[in-house]
Amino acid sequence: MRGLLIRWIMLTVAILLAAWLLPGITVGGPVSAFFAAAALGILNALFRPILLLLTLPLNILTLGLFTFVINALMLMMASGIIGGLQVAGFWWAVLGSLIISSVSWLSTSLINERGRVEVISLRQRHGRWE
Fold first, then answer.
1. Measuring CA to CA, how many Å separate 24 from each of 15, 18, 95, 122?
2. DSSP string computed for 24-87
3. Nearest CA to 67 among 76, 78, 77, 56?
4. CA-to-CA distance for 101 and 17, rounded, in angstroms?
5. What are phi and psi of 47, to 5 degrees?
6. pLDDT tens-digit profile of 19-78?
7. Where is the chain membrane-spanning (predicted)?
8. pTM (2 decimals)?
9. Which backbone phi and psi does 128 adopt, to 5 degrees?
10. Can you give the residue ranges of every domain in the chain?
11. Would you say 40 and 11 are in contact if contact means Cβ atoms under 8 Å apart?
């Protein structure tokens, strides 16, 4: 549960970072970003797997780059739900989804379910990595 809350806060920070870096994305404040992160998380949990499955041939054809389009659509859907989050257009949503996806991937790969940072360190022993 603690890991979920930390990832939610990291997603909120990612949305605020995208709004700070990109003039096409505006957020009303930290509270709006917090609720936008919740809406984005729910949309990603419910609709993203279905969209990924439906667009699998196109995703394979583009070597996975179409996933950014799906993420942009999820961001635009979240902006339609949350009044404090506004995305000026599709390409701003694509750029915003790049930033948000990067931070989300980093936090998901580093933070476990208990909310602790987990780092895998590899050592080479007898010619093998362990």
1. 12, 9, 9, 41
2. TEEES-HHHHHHHHHHHHHHHHHTHHHHHHHTHHHHHHTTTTHHHHHHHHHHHHHHHH-TTEEE
3. 56
4. 12
5. -100, -30
6. 999 999 999 989 999 999 999 989 988 998 999 999 999 999 999 899 999 999 999 999
7. 38-56, 63-83, 89-106
8. 0.80
9. -125, 150
10. 2-116
11. yes
